[in-house]
Amino acid sequence: MAKSSSWPKIDAVFSLYESYGHADYIGEPVSQIEHMCQAAQLAEQEGYGAEVILAAFFHDLGHLFAQENELEEMDGFGVMDHEKLGAEYLRELGFPELVALLVESHVAAKRYLTYKNPEYFRKLSDASKETLKFQGGVMTAAEALAFEADKNHQLILKMRDWDEKAKLTGIPLPDLEKYRKMAKDLLDGPTNS
């Protein structure tokens, strides 16, 4: 069976996971790939479809770029604007806008939640508190209103919840082939598969 035209794009993104996914998830007790797989598994367990599951799987993709490119860092806590880097890369590959939006917005969700609920800040890991300083800090009231106006803001908050929960040790990695196929089906669309 010949590979569809989407396979080179999928190979490109998954090669980042294969090459750099086992690196430490900066300041957390899991690797990058463990963290992103756990987030995807949480989305799947809650019954979400491919776009949301893949957004959870790709949400920290921007951190993997740092392993092969010299990018501005957050004092040893990962790459500046990793959410924007990952989202732009996914757009360039042709993934649906919802996937890119959820990847791009998971940092804004942290900023929003620290504004809305000061207790949320206290529950953040030390690494997440440090990165918040580089990510714009707590939202202003005006920023929070704009965030709430986004029709996807509840889903963005879900993404953040999975991001926070996806830091457990000892969770077996799923077969990445499942996500590769999901990505191929999404890129190819229902009429081209």
UniProtKB/TrEMBL annotation:
InterPro entries: HD/PDEase_dom, HD_domain, HDIG_dom, OP_Dioxygenase. It comes from the Bacteria. NCBIfam families: HDIG. Gene3D superfamilies: Hypothetical protein af1432. This is HD domain-containing protein. It comes from Cyclobacterium plantarum. Residues 33-111 form the HD domain. It holds the Pfam family HD.
